[in-house]
Amino acid sequence: MHNSLTALLTQVRDGSISVADAALQLREAPFEDLGYARVDHHRRLRQGAAEVIYGAGKTPEQIAGIVDSLQRSGQKTVLITRMKPEAAAYLQERAALTYDAASRIGIVGPLPEPDGDGKIVVATGGTSDIPVAEEAALTAEVLGNRVVRLYDVGVAGLHRLLASLDELMGARAIIAIAGMEGALASVIGGLVDCPVIAVPTSVGYGASFGGVAALLSMLNSCASGVSVVNIDNGFGAGYLASMINHMGAKP
Amino acid sequence: MHNSLTALLTQVRDGSISVADAALQLREAPFEDLGYARVDHHRRLRQGAAEVIYGAGKTPEQIAGIVDSLQRSGQKTVLITRMKPEAAAYLQERAALTYDAASRIGIVGPLPEPDGDGKIVVATGGTSDIPVAEEAALTAEVLGNRVVRLYDVGVAGLHRLLASLDELMGARAIIAIAGMEGALASVIGGLVDCPVIAVPTSVGYGASFGGVAALLSMLNSCASGVSVVNIDNGFGAGYLASMINHMGAKP
Amino acid sequence: MHNSLTALLTQVRDGSISVADAALQLREAPFEDLGYARVDHHRRLRQGAAEVIYGAGKTPEQIAGIVDSLQRSGQKTVLITRMKPEAAAYLQERAALTYDAASRIGIVGPLPEPDGDGKIVVATGGTSDIPVAEEAALTAEVLGNRVVRLYDVGVAGLHRLLASLDELMGARAIIAIAGMEGALASVIGGLVDCPVIAVPTSVGYGASFGGVAALLSMLNSCASGVSVVNIDNGFGAGYLASMINHMGAKP
Amino acid sequence: MHNSLTALLTQVRDGSISVADAALQLREAPFEDLGYARVDHHRRLRQGAAEVIYGAGKTPEQIAGIVDSLQRSGQKTVLITRMKPEAAAYLQERAALTYDAASRIGIVGPLPEPDGDGKIVVATGGTSDIPVAEEAALTAEVLGNRVVRLYDVGVAGLHRLLASLDELMGARAIIAIAGMEGALASVIGGLVDCPVIAVPTSVGYGASFGGVAALLSMLNSCASGVSVVNIDNGFGAGYLASMINHMGAKP
Amino acid sequence: MHNSLTALLTQVRDGSISVADAALQLREAPFEDLGYARVDHHRRLRQGAAEVIYGAGKTPEQIAGIVDSLQRSGQKTVLITRMKPEAAAYLQERAALTYDAASRIGIVGPLPEPDGDGKIVVATGGTSDIPVAEEAALTAEVLGNRVVRLYDVGVAGLHRLLASLDELMGARAIIAIAGMEGALASVIGGLVDCPVIAVPTSVGYGASFGGVAALLSMLNSCASGVSVVNIDNGFGAGYLASMINHMGAKP
Amino acid sequence: MHNSLTALLTQVRDGSISVADAALQLREAPFEDLGYARVDHHRRLRQGAAEVIYGAGKTPEQIAGIVDSLQRSGQKTVLITRMKPEAAAYLQERAALTYDAASRIGIVGPLPEPDGDGKIVVATGGTSDIPVAEEAALTAEVLGNRVVRLYDVGVAGLHRLLASLDELMGARAIIAIAGMEGALASVIGGLVDCPVIAVPTSVGYGASFGGVAALLSMLNSCASGVSVVNIDNGFGAGYLASMINHMGAKP
Amino acid sequence: MHNSLTALLTQVRDGSISVADAALQLREAPFEDLGYARVDHHRRLRQGAAEVIYGAGKTPEQIAGIVDSLQRSGQKTVLITRMKPEAAAYLQERAALTYDAASRIGIVGPLPEPDGDGKIVVATGGTSDIPVAEEAALTAEVLGNRVVRLYDVGVAGLHRLLASLDELMGARAIIAIAGMEGALASVIGGLVDCPVIAVPTSVGYGASFGGVAALLSMLNSCASGVSVVNIDNGFGAGYLASMINHMGAKP
Amino acid sequence: MHNSLTALLTQVRDGSISVADAALQLREAPFEDLGYARVDHHRRLRQGAAEVIYGAGKTPEQIAGIVDSLQRSGQKTVLITRMKPEAAAYLQERAALTYDAASRIGIVGPLPEPDGDGKIVVATGGTSDIPVAEEAALTAEVLGNRVVRLYDVGVAGLHRLLASLDELMGARAIIAIAGMEGALASVIGGLVDCPVIAVPTSVGYGASFGGVAALLSMLNSCASGVSVVNIDNGFGAGYLASMINHMGAKP
């Protein structure tokens, strides 16, 4: 069942569990307080996807502590984003960690079988956008999706993009990743009929302002069906694409 | 069939139509050039939703001309966004226009029957956000969705939001609309397991900078599953929510 | 002869005129001081194009005074940009003024015969960009160019742009005008081999920030051969395109 | 007595001290000029709290010199903020310094007994905000306050925050520290009836712009009773919270 | 008793009320849903101060509806901020409204007797800041505070400020309101030992950027004990100052 | 005598006046409190120039009240900046006001005889900058300076500027006023050896951002001897230029 | 022939090649997919200039792979911009690379003979702008142009610029490169009658904001014929100047 | 004689030198072209102060080359700003260089005797502003001025500033240097009657934005007689102050 919280609340409404008992469950279950972190053991119940660790600004010891807590609570695969090489080295001595240095993604435990409704396409404007793209693609794969990668298909050479029209047309969701002027999202958005998640990247220089130019370009897209996540936020795009690609499973 | 373009391309691949004939069809069909506008008659085929008129910066005569062109091409219902009262008055003398002054939405023709997979929730932080919310809600309704409105459920009075937890939990997609600090998207995003489309509004003053504060807040949401559209872009959110709410119909 | 200043300087170098006499000519000729304006009678000599009046921030009386000064100095056609209707009304009683209200362009005197090397294409992303486009197109026409107008060819419906590939490919210079995300310049820049002058417009809302989104997008274009002028600066684009379209005439 | 300056001025008004003598006292007492710094020995009299050293941009020698000057003037405990490890190492050889590397807080001398009216709560949105939180908490402790730490209670997992409702409800002042979208301040502000001091942090990436997103979010909080200090300014928040927590002692 | 929610929760903890009954009370009491607004009848219990109406962006009819709902729930005095003259005129025909046009503050019902611990000083840098100052002062008075007004005491004529040193020194909280360079907050903050709430105003021109210069100046104040609210947010400052001025009453 | 405050302080140091008496004089003299304004009667003593009224944000009644207060204190000529036509009309019925509508400068009383050391040059880049230039020029004239006006000498027609090299070279101080790219200040600064006060104006459009482009340009001037005042701040430039032009009179 | 694509399309129109065959050619020819890059072998045909490698964000291995792919496709000279020394060292062991460390330009293969219509002038405001200038100059030389370098001719010493008036007057296109206030482009633009391509540089400090001041200054240039490329984009300027300098060769 | 250029031009006007000879002198004299720099030997004639070397972005070899050129042209003392330690080390082996590491100021040759009209005061808000202050003070000393240093007199401890009122009152020009909120310039500007040159510094953190907060604060100063130079531009302030302090010497 996809959402235990709703189940719990339904039981309350139906009277099959008392309010006090439900409150007790909610109060006891949700998290483990490590002092520096309140680890959310409840998230899979509440949101249908397990807790993910945002590695930036956490010490290797803190990351290891949270992984440990999650594993103790029964979570099999743990995704760690923005993980520094030092933290990866520290963790690799303690757990079965796969680490991709370019995207700084760490994965503890096995990749699940894909169970999504269709395919997710991850497209980039250039070669330099690949690290962000891999963050998105690996996130989607950890969450059980089949992913198609189309890299370096920026609009300055439109034929490179049009050559992959089939893959674009067959996607359930497309993640369009680009720095500089970020036009990729608009051009793709005008071609397809599935949601396009635009990820501006900090690739560029001068008046790209660390991704602001691409961000504004994407927010102002004249194509419909395009929404935007934070600059370089490959994880957020992968997570959302997975959610959309699992809509068929919802009741 | 949801996508005639794919059909056409499939025929090409299968050899049931020659490339030359397909090219001819593509070249002839797509738009009518009115001089001031190239009206896209092809969009329903390509993207599964009919052409929408962005009313800002167009004269009443231009809007009427485009409506006329679309109707001649067989489109039954035409949505016009950001429509000024003058344009509405002008059009009302020429066509069956329904006009909502607060959201500046005009609809020519009948509303379709809802055919989406589930419900779309449109929530606002405050009363002042309602015009943007209606742009989103009416857009979704024109595109065939059932819509639940939850207005004035901002986070400063959390119990007002929590009282509607049932509606939130039952949605296929949620549109979270807020100005000022825009925290509504994050709080909803942390509670539910469906896509949340965040719409910052220009409601506020001083350091809200016309919606920038809410925009940045939403882009930086610590909740997963949240993506963002342009400030005050109720239409974009409604369109995307409808797309997500029709995923079940995709092959 | 296209540049009298160079001629004058050449005479100085060749000894056919003394430095003192040349200095005298330069000192006497260049401008008439009206108190509120120093009207440049020398510009056609120095730059190959006559003085143009920037109408914003000038009173109708000042504009009329400058027109008068230019006509007295022998200039046949005078272009006035950003001219308010009041100023146009005032001037129309005093001179043979043609006025285009949408682009706020006023022209005193006859349009010259086109004498450029080829054609200039003026393309816009949408209908709302037309006023800026007309400022560019009329400027180019006043300066002696043949102009092709392609309006509403934005990238969200790529086929509308590709249908005009012939006109684009045959241009000596292209002016790409767009608001919102401004992707038009990059897409055109990737298709053609002539200079593309990008004009961001203030068309849009929210995070378009009055044209900043399009401006940044264009400055970061991944296509080569693209340069940018100020937001809404149709005049500047038309002037530069004309300069490029008259290169063949240069020695 | 909380404010000797007022006392002095009162004596002047009452005639119990001549203006000249008062002026002399004010002129002689207030500071020691070290050339590179004018050390304020007068601050406890004027403001009820001793001088604090802002360590950034000062050399280890300068910091040591100011500590020395303060100790000679009778100040028992000296707080040093933004202190680099080199400066700490240099000072530790010369004085009884306690140094917290994460928050870069140095304390020379003993911690005072808490003498505030109640408790101050320091809450953070995430683990990465802890260094700023410790700057606030240690500042408050140096100034004589009891402090409760609630770390990693961000709004994306609302139950983690609600589980500590008791501590929040029992505070005299709450310091809400968050980066990214900064929604924590608004949510807490809507739940409690004591002043909430919001501290945006530079935690985040992309469109967080080094804390600007959280700053704007907090400035636009729709909850009442919330005010804001500079990004990462844990010290300022701790100081102000202490001031509020000592209001009962004021006459 | 200042906080009924705490009381209710305490009863739950003590067992004098069942969780279910408490939940019922919370669920039933909190707000009335008017469709366009969820009026918070619970706020006085939860936060110790009654609901305030933010008038901007609400129609006169909506404001009247909310006033009516609050009065029906037993609230005697209703404060309305940012109220347009039209709304005031509309309401004055229906209720006992006092309206101050400069500050756009409306008050329905009688002013309460001051019950704060001491006095609140409201100081402005110039004459043009008075409307914001009155919003702060009237808010504080509606919430039961004695207010001292010191207007036009900007730092360019320091003696004007120093002449009121007595009033400043005797305050429980000071609201420092200034546009332009906003130095007033720092100078006051350096002189006194009570909390200073800084309110930047949009007074100024050019590089004041609608109050941004003053806002940044205040956020970077080198004086301790200073915190900041949004530009022109007199209400927020008055509310917070009242909260601080009622600390003595807290248990 | 140019500075009575210094005189008073010197008397204190020399013992020719007691500290108490001096304090009394300072306390009594400085300002008149009108409630909405603290009128500085002391400024001529302290700063060598009489009080000036900043008209923006003041009602006609307030302006008249301050003029009255200044005249009662013996000030003969009163300068009012940013004065709206309504205020001028109101005042003209009550006092001998000269009003310049373009620069919004009002002058009550007679212009003084010039007593500066030399001449002040006021130069503008274009015709549209004249209102700001007149604010500067009239301010300088009210303060007793001889002013030379050089209008419309922008760098796009360098010969127009070079033709006035004599006037530039003979100035004691130059006020360089320009909008758009603001290059005028740098070019003048490179030619002369007296202080250049740069005034960016809000003249321009698009990426001039209301004067920000010119402001930044001037702040980054590669010429030495250039300093900058606020956008459109003709008054500030005129005041400072007058100060510099009266340096010879200082002891 | 300068444009094979046009040729191909002409053949299609004339019936000398079938649409299917043309599509096949387009589909097969254009690029080689290396996984991390889609190398555009088609660009010379489409745009008249060979593919250029943007070195930033690419690994040495990726750059070498793309060079290899281009050479295999028959391209003789390959330009690499923003190339790090490590990448240069790596490539120098594998190919005939010329590398300029200051401008980070790498060139594989021989420089072509100049075949442009005239000369391109590259001018800088200061010595610190030289790296960007060399990027522009070397790009232009790789594309077959004669280049004249005028370095350190900033407007603060106008005679340094005027001394090179002959070179400026004789150019087909001028690249004006400057940081700080960027006035160089306006002053040159006012003197000459050929296109001026302005390149803002990140040279400067403080309020130059990494080149933003120069960028805005150039966008707002009051001189006609000036257009702008991205900050530090010497390559883009060199490419565009070359395009203009080869206009005579166009049919 | 202070300005040889004027002298030369006067000779031209008087006929005592021919235009041709004058032109020759101007053409020959002004600068030496080193390829990477055009060294201005003419500046002392034109502007009354010798050439200064801006060290940032120049190699040690380039700096040494320019010093050499200036010395050959007869300049005795050479000021080098923003000089890196490496460049200083390199130069110290070749010339008599005095180097101040904190302010990165290098001086080749002897300091001149002060010949200004009075004294220049350099005041800072804090200890961290001293490097910028020394850049200003040393520049002023190199240009022949007596300098009084008042460091750490920020407005948060007003008595520290007021204790130095005598020095402030006796200055011909004051340089007010501050980071954070930059209020120092306004407070000093309100106290004195000489020009105040405000220098914002990049000292601060968070919302100081590298000096922008102080810059805006200073530009919006409500005190008259205040003008601003670029962030951290101690040199510019010292140069301008020297110019003002030598006004008495002007004819």
Q: Gist?
A:
The structure is a homooctamer of 251-residue chains. With 251 residues, chain A is an alpha/beta fold.
The tally of helices of chain A reads 11
So what's the CATH class of the largest domain in chain A? Alpha Beta
Largest interface: A-B, 42 and 42 residues
* Strand-pairing-aware structural class of chain A: alpha/beta
Tell me the overall shape of chain A. globular
Biggest sheet of chain A: strands side by side, in what order?
8-7-9-10-11
Helical content of chain A (DSSP H or I, runs of 4+)? 25-40%
- Could you tell me the number of beta strands of chain A? 11
Strand percent estimate of chain A: 15-25%
Largest sheet descriptor of chain A: 5 strands, parallel
Q: What value does the Rg of chain A take, in angstroms?
A: 20 Å
Q: Domains counted in the coordinates of chain A: how many?
A: 2
For the termini of chain A, the CA-CA separation is 10 Å
The CATH architecture of the largest domain in chain A comes to 3-Layer(aba) Sandwich
Structure description:
- 8 copies of one chain form a homooctamer.
- The model of chain A has no long low-confidence stretch (mean pLDDT 86).
- The N and C termini of chain A lie close together (10 Å).
- The first copy, chain A, has a 5-stranded parallel beta sheet, with helices on both faces.
- The first copy, chain A, folds into 2 domains: 106 residues, no CATH class; 131 residues, 3-Layer(aba) Sandwich (Rossmann fold), CATH 3.40.50.1970.
- In chain A, 63% of the residues are buried.
- In chain A, α4 packs across α5 and α6 packs parallel to α11.
- Chain A is α/β, with parallel strands linked by helices and 251 residues long.
- Chain A is 39% helix and 18% strand.
